[in-house]
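Work Package 4 report. The design task specified in the project plan requires that, given a folded chain encoded as C-alpha cells, an amino acid be chosen for each position. We show below one input record used in the internal validation round.
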C-alpha cells in the first residue's frame, strides 16, 4: 500500500470533501461556490469527472494500455454535465474514492515507476498524485469557503503543493507593468522563493545570495495567491502581487 505523503494528503483531501458534501442540502448544492461562474454542484461535477478520467488513465497505465483518447474524456464530461445538481453531489464521492483507493493500492516502488505524459509534461506516479491533489484541494476549498469564510486549504496538501508551484506560475501568471524580482518567504512550511517577472513570471527556490524576503506569508496563502484565490490582505507588499495571478 502506498505510503507516499502525496497519497496520504490526497486521502485527507478526499475525507475533507466527504465531510463537506455529506450534509449539503439541495439548496446549498445549488449555491455559488468561490469559483464565481460555478455552483457548488458544478465544482463537484468537475471533481467527479476528473476522478473518472484519472481512474481511466491509471487503469491504462497499470494494464500497459494506451491512454484513453480525447473522445473518451469528452464522453465523461458530457455524462457529468448532464447530471442534475443532486446527482453531481451524490456521485462525486464514489468516483473520487475509486481514484484515491487506486493510488493507495500501489506500493511506493510501483507508484514511483509510473510514467505518463500530460501535454508538454512528463510525470512520474507521485507527480500524477500531486497534480490531482492540487486540483482536488483547491476545488474542495472552493466549496468549503462558500460555506465557511474562515476555511483554509488542507495543510497536508499545502506541504505537497507549495514546492511544485513553478509550473503553475509559468503558465498562469501575468507580468506586472514593471519588472519585479522579489524574495518570497513562507511559513507552515518554511520556504524561500524568488518571484521574477523580468520577461515572464517565474518562481524558483531562493539562495542565501538572494537576500532578505520582501514578502512573507503563510504557504497556504501563497498557494491560493498562485491559483488566483487570494483576496486583498491589507498588506501592501502582498496585495501588489495579486495582479500577477488572475486565476484560471
Amino acid at each position: 500500500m502506498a505510503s507516499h505523503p502525496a497519497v496520504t494528503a490526497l486521502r485527507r483531501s478526499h475525507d475533507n470533501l466527504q465531510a463537506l458534501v455529506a450534509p449539503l442540502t439541495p439548496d446549498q448544492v445549488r449555491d455559488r461556490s468561490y469559483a464565481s461562474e460555478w455552483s457548488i454542484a458544478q465544482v463537484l461535477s468537475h471533481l467527479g469527472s476528473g476522478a473518472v478520467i484519472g481512474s481511466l488513465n491509471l487503469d491504462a497505465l497499470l494494464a500497459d494500455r494506451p491512454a484513453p483518447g480525447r473522445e473518451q474524456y469528452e464522453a465523461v464530461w458530457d455524462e457529468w454535465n448532464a447530471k442534475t445538481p443532486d446527482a453531481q453531489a451524490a456521485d462525486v464521492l464514489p468516483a473520487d474514492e475509486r481514484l484515491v483507493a487506486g493510488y493507495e493500492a500501489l506500493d511506493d516502488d510501483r507508484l514511483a515507476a509510473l510514467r505518463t505524459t500530460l501535454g508538454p509534461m512528463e510525470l512520474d506516479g507521485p507527480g500524477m498524485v500531486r497534480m490531482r491533489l492540487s486540483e482536488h484541494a483547491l476545488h474542495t476549498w472552493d466549496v468549503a469557503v462558500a460555506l465557511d469564510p474562515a476555511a483554509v486549504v488542507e495543510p497536508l496538501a499545502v506541504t505537497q503543493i507549495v514546492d511544485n508551484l513553478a509550473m503553475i506560475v509559468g503558465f498562469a501568471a501575468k507580468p506586472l507593468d514593471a519588472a519585479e524580482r522579489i524574495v518570497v518567504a513562507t511559513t507552515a512550511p518554511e520556504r524561500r522563493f524568488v518571484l521574477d517577472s523580468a520577461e515572464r513570471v517565474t518562481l524558483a527556490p531562493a539562495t542565501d545570495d538572494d537576500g532578505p524576503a520582501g514578502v512573507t506569508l503563510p504557504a497556504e496563502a501563497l498557494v491560493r495567491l498562485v491559483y488566483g484565490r487570494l483576496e486583498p490582505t491589507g498588506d501592501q507588499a502582498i496585495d501588489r502581487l495579486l495582479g500577477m495571478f488572475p486565476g484560471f
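The chain is about 55% helix and 10% strand. Validation will be extended to a larger panel in the next phase.
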